[in-house]
Amino acid sequence: MEVDELMCLPRLPRVAVCGGTHGNELSGVYLVRELLKVEKKAVEEEEEPVSVMIVLSNPRATQQCHRYVDTDLNRCFTHATLNGPISDTDPYEIIRSRELNALLGPKGSRQAVDLVCDLHNTTANMGMCFITYSDCDWICLHIFRHLQKEIPDIPMRFIHFDVSNKESYSLDSVGKHGFAMEIGPQPHGVVRSNIYTAMKGGVQHMLDWVRLFNSGAIFRGGFVDVFTMVKHIDYPRDSVTHNITAAIHPHLQDRDFCLLHPDDPLFQTFSGETLRYKGKEPLYPFFINECAYYEKGIALSLARKRRVMIPSIRVETEQEQQANHQQYSSEDEN
Amino acid sequence: MEVDELMCLPRLPRVAVCGGTHGNELSGVYLVRELLKVEKKAVEEEEEPVSVMIVLSNPRATQQCHRYVDTDLNRCFTHATLNGPISDTDPYEIIRSRELNALLGPKGSRQAVDLVCDLHNTTANMGMCFITYSDCDWICLHIFRHLQKEIPDIPMRFIHFDVSNKESYSLDSVGKHGFAMEIGPQPHGVVRSNIYTAMKGGVQHMLDWVRLFNSGAIFRGGFVDVFTMVKHIDYPRDSVTHNITAAIHPHLQDRDFCLLHPDDPLFQTFSGETLRYKGKEPLYPFFINECAYYEKGIALSLARKRRVMIPSIRVETEQEQQANHQQYSSEDEN
After folding, report:
1. Does the beta-carbon distance from A248 to B188 stay under 8 Å?
2. What's A284's DSSP letter?
3. Record: contact B193-A250, CB cut-off 8 A
4. Do the beta carbons of residue B316 and residue B302 sit within 8 Å?
């Protein structure tokens, strides 16, 4: 692939912006509520060039200001869970994931919305991150570059979880394209103006980009640093009680995306001892001391950084679209 | 009162250090677990000059990593709640408050422990605070000055809630002397090494001071800045849904104990408008954007600062103690 190769991609007529997938991550909750007010006005006033669906994903958890009611909604969007047997006694989030799949998907189908942006917060000092399942989704990567350019004062990273579409588990995997917009640090159950404003700006610039793309603008290719998740590290724990016996080391705390070298301090035990990173390869830590991951056994995650070349893109013309549509249809028939 | 007047005060043979009164304020939870291990060793090794009771106040909430199970334990220690009728259907924390009152009190009685130090965290940028119901408890004020001297790198304030002993509602009110040690910022459900270490140091220096005091040391008088709570301010809210419609203004966020003047920015609405402080008197804000106070209708609290003169103190000699004891006994008989 040449950098100046121009790829033509399908239009993105339908976008979903979701918040409150975790009910205590408040920037997304309040931004969605605000967007719902604005959407009401916009619908009354004019026809939008892109249809934007605003969704409060987990209303019950949001009402309780908890991450979830029965189980983590953002782990319910695997092929297996969405298509498993249905029962009256299913946890609330299993039922809700099917409702959302019907609304925004079905996942993997042609009816699915074109782009899902799911809003999240973290207690980790991660700035703004895109979290995706692909390192070659040019739409997500171009939106990311657009935001990097438009919001230069916020540190911004692109995180890639190398998981197949079938096994991808988060709400954003329901769209044809999708990403989680993760912003921190912000305590869960708290809304901080600076984090809220950053998220609001991120969503506005994302929608601006989609409008520009749909209207035929050409977006030049280039390079993006992609952080691919390699492994998680759990806290040291008491073998009997399973309680943690150490916290993130003060030298590591808040230093997300600063290279962690072998033998660097990793944890400080509650009695004051320093435990060091025993890995052999320097890697980039992220989700350092994320509140919700104590129960998942993750003290931090580690990533490898790669520079990915992305092509120039523009939207397909109507003729190209018809030709491709016919091609897809005959493929479907086969 | 002269500054160099020397007051003689009763010994402090029994001290309680409590954590996990709120189950998701993790510095206290992990410090108490650590102290319980150390205590076990200490008891095996030597006789302590002061008896220290280490208490995990709300084990059920701690296990769930929630602030509370049924109701806020740290509002259950009023005279009325502790002495009300007992029922099998009482909320867990009501039952637990009576157990703790039996263990550490009874509140207001001579059997009560001499000093209760209850460990708390806040999401507000408050550094280390002592929170008390008295601005003339020389024991608490002297301990505070000792910690200010011994831990100079942590901002430290003394907060006074002007509430009578009968109406005082928190666990620390059960002791003859008591204070909450409140440290932040730390998200609830997270433990940060720096905050844990500050709390550990605070407790160690507090216990050192009690040992010194009991052994007859004279502590010189001086001045302490006391912040007396004046009022709380709630978030702007939607009149129908009661949802908040604004966050703390970015200029105010994290600026606890920085004087707030009339017309200073107070909130930023979710649509971007600035709302200003309409009070007539400059006051000191604290508990700015504390997570647990959204449900209590408190966006921040405001205090007036006063300089309080505290006398020099030493422990009573045995003779003084006997004389005072006899005096108390005859008062009791009357």
Report:
1. no
2. E
3. yes
4. no
Q: Is A31 on the interface with B (CB under 8 A)?
A: yes
Tokens for B290, please give them.
Answer: 């504390």
ipTM: 0.94
Strand partners, A272: none
CB contact under 8 Å between A188 and B187, yes or no, is yes
Sign of the torsion formed by the C-alpha atoms of B99, B105, B107 and B113: negative
Rg (CA), chain B: 21
pLDDT in tens, B66-93: 999 999 999 999 999 999 998 889 999 9
DSSP letter for each residue of B256-270: TTSPBPTT-EEEEET
Percentage of chain B with pLDDT > 90? 87
How many residues are given for chain B?
A: 334
Please give the Cα distance from A197 to A191 (Å, whole number).
10
Q: Cβ distance A180 to A120 under 8 Å?
A: yes
With both helix axes pointing from N to C terminus, report the angle between B193-214 and B138-150 in degrees, rounded to the nearest 10.
Answer: 120
* pLDDT at residue B333 in the model: 46
Name the percent of chain B lying above pLDDT 70: 93
B318 min Cα distance to partner chain A (Å): 38
* CA atoms of B25 and B185, how far apart (whole Å): 11
Contacts of B121 in chain A (CB under 8 A): none
Q: Which residue of A has its CA nearest to B252?
A: A193
Of A33, A190, A268, nearest to B193 by CB-CB distance is A268
Residue B41's pLDDT is 67
> Is-contact B125 B185, C-beta < 8 A?
yes
- Per-residue pLDDT tens digits for B115-166: 999 999 999 999 999 999 999 999 999 999 999 999 999 999 999 999 988 8
The answer to whether A175 and A114 have CB atoms below 8 angstroms apart is yes
CA–CA distance from B184 to each of A253, A299, B116, B232 (Å)?
Answer: 15, 21, 20, 19
CA distance B62 to A11: 51
Min Cα–Cα distance to chain B from A197, Å: 8
pLDDT per residue as tens digits for the range A47-89: 667 999 999 999 999 999 999 999 999 999 999 999 999 888 9
Per-residue model confidence (pLDDT) at position A131: 98
Residue B322 has pLDDT above 60, yes or no: yes
Q: Does A192 touch chain B (CB under 8 A)?
A: yes
Each residue of A197-251: pLDDT tens digit?
999 999 999 999 999 999 999 999 999 999 999 999 999 999 999 999 999 999 9
Nearest CB partner across the interface for A247, out of B191, B248, B292: B191
* Residue from the list B34, B253, B294 with its beta carbon closest to the beta carbon of A193: B253
Q: Report the first-to-last Cα separation within chain B, whole angstroms.
A: 29
- Whether the CB of A255 is below 8 Å from some CB of chain B: the reply is no
Shortest Cα–Cα distance, A298 to chain B (Å): 12
Rounded distance between C-alpha atoms, residue B32 and residue B34, angstroms: 5
- For A321, counting Cβ atoms within 10 Å of its Cβ (0-12 exposed, 13-18 middle, 19+ buried), the class is middle
The two counts, helices (H) then strands (E), for chain A are 7, 14
Phi, psi (deg, nearest 5) at residue B276: -110, 160
A248 to B189: CB separation less than 8 angstroms, yes or no: no
Considering only the beta carbons, identify the residue of B33, B192, B272 that sits closest to A247.
B192
Is the pLDDT reported for residue B58 higher than 50?
yes
Closest CA to B234 of B243, B222, B225, B224: B243
